[in-house]
Design brief:
By secondary structure, the chain is mostly beta strands. The strands form 2 sheets. It has a 3-stranded antiparallel β-sheet with strand order 3-4-5, with no helix packed on it. A two-stranded antiparallel sheet has the order 1-2.
């Protein structure tokens, strides 16, 4: 039975107690579980904030938002016709820092 392990062969019990071997076809392509390497782009955004109580009903919130926090250049979305990938072309923008101040009452 080891030859049928992990395949699409199933054993169907019949009314007379015998087993019938058949294959299961769910209509998908046979290579459906294969993967294709992509461009490998990833990024990480981060945020820090601090709430400061000034009075009973007055609060100040300071935000610092970091976009592309690790400053990862990523691969460009297209590789040239020669197949070379150079690091001088970046697939994402540089690190961006955004500061904000919110007053709530």
């Amino acid at each position: 039975m080891y030859n049928y392990y992990g395949g699409n062969t199933v054993w169907v019990p019949l009314k007379d107690g015998t087993l019938q071997r058949t294959t299961y076809d769910n209509g998908f392509l046979p290579l459906r579980n294969q993967y294709h390497l992509g461009v490998r782009q990833w990024g990480l955004d981060a945020s820090l904030y601090k709430n400061i109580l000034i009075q009973e009903r007055l609060t100040v919130r300071i935000n610092a938002d970091f976009f592309n926090a690790f400053n990862h250049p990523n691969n460009p979305s297209g590789v040239g016709g020669d197949g070379l990938l150079m690091t001088q072309n970046s697939g994402s923008g540089a690190r961006v820092l955004q500061l904000s101040l919110r007053l709530s009452w």
